[in-house]
Every structure is written in structure tokens, then in C-alpha cells.
Amino acid sequence: MKALITGISGFAGSYLAEFLLDKGYEVFGTFYDKSTFSNIDSILDKIEIFEVDLRNYNNLKTIIEKIQPEEIYHLAAISFVPISLRDPQLTFDTNLYGTLNLYKAIIELKIAPKILFIGSADEYGIVNENNLPIKENCPLNPVNPYSISKASADYLSYFYFKNYHLNIIRVRPFNHIGPRQAPDFVCSSFAKQIVAIEKGIRAPKIMVGNLEVKRDFTDVRDMVRAYWLIIQKGKPGEVYNICSGRAIQIKGLLNNLLELSSKEIEIIKDSKRIRFADNPILQGDFSKIRERCGWKPEIPLDKTLKDILEYWRKILN
Fold it and tell me: What's the topology of domain 2-177+219-246+288-293?
């Protein structure tokens, strides 16, 4: 079985590649730059990768024609909200029009792979408490260029399923965390700062943003298992939430990490880390994927947090 992972060297992409290799797949991937290659160092000799800018239609089409994939996991995206705020043009060109290029290429090549479009829980935006936990039929209300681009590509994916009969399944993953995640993201940021303090690299002060918001966290290893199960058992045209089903306050997440360190650390609020229009709570309902695919999260949050700290303890010198 041939699988193509767009964004293979990214956080989730690298774990998905390892998962598929363990399943006996022939794994191909696209990358945009080499800055995240450390994520796939251990499997570079087992996969075939191509440098592809999703905005370049002809390049993307040529690679897909060469691979002839039977499954496509479309992860490549601008996924960090502050980047989307700084450069909405790049965000839309990549997340929306890059997805459009993928579907156009598949149609022109007359191939019929299973396609998993990776959206985001951020598409739901600010959700009324009456709609919690969030089900897939909750209205979309994106509030930043990243989530707007993802919601747009989500609708585009449904359009290409409905009108061109592409075998597309959509997912809206909630926050996923684990080793290798970039320190731009909250959990990895906390862990990296804590380890830097442990190693005497920085003063015993940790910089934080809004600690009051609540998020639904899933281990990335559970997340990629869900991606695979959905592409095997999910219903084309449908959308599935992937989440833990419980919301954790960021303050509690930080306290759990601090308890795993022996250092006394002062918490400092940094206004630059606070987003405008920040959603106070994101909590998902994963009953649809559980009923269709038999998936549920299995890795406890405590293990995930320990693994993240150990990752940074190995990385930082």
C-alpha cells in the first residue's frame, strides 16, 4: 500500500510516517523546507520524500503522478496562529489554494486515492457553552486567518467530494501534543522553558500567556492512529472530531509540568503571548469516531507530559 503524507517532516506527519511504516506501508512524503528534518532522521532511509511547495501546482501534480498513492494524508499547512496573523496571504495560499491544487491534480491524473483532509478544531471558533462538548454539527465560527483558511478548505473538500466524487474524509483534530512539537505551541513551550531552567540555561522564570483558557489535549500518537483508522473505516464525505473529550485549563497543564521538575520556578505573564479573540474553552466530543472506527484516546496525559519533558532534556544542552 502506497501512502503520501503532505508535510511529512512536521510534528504529526513524522509520527504518522512511523505508524504507517510499522503497518507495512510504502511511505512517501512532501516537505517545504529542511528545518524540521530532525523529526524524520531515524526513518529517512525507509521513506521517499520530495521538496514540494503546495502553491506550485505543476510540481505537486508531477510528484503525485510519480507516486500513484492509494492513500493521501493531507497534513501540510501553515498551522501556527501568530504566523497566520502576520501573513494571511501565505496562510490562504498554502492552506486553501494548496488543498485546491491537490484535488485538481488528482482529478486531472484520473486516480482515486482515499484522501484524509486534516482540518482543525479552531474552525469552530468561539462556541456557546450550550454547544459543549462540541459535536461535528456545531456551526463553524473561525476567528483568525488560520482557522478561516482551514474552514474554507474544509468546505472545499466537501465540495470536491460531492461534485467530483473524490474519496475525501475530513477530520477536525483538537489540540495534540507530544515529543517533537515545536516550542511555538503552549505545552512544548512550557516544557522547553522548564528544562532550560533545569540545565541552568535560563533564569528560573517561565513566560506564559493566558492561563485561564481550557483546551482539549490528545497525545499525537493517539492522533495519528485515529487518522489511519478513519481513512480505513470512515465514511467519505463525513467529518470527524478527534479529541480526548475533556478540557484542561492551561494553568493546570503548567502545574502538572512543574510538578515533574524539582526546580522552584516563578511564573511571569507575557502580554506578547496573549492572543486576541482567544476562545475561552475548546472541548470536543469524539463519539462519532468511536462509534464508526472504534477509536478512543489511550495515552494518559501524565505520560505525554513526562515524554515531552524527557524529549527536551535530551535535546537541550
Answer: Rossmann fold (3.40.50)
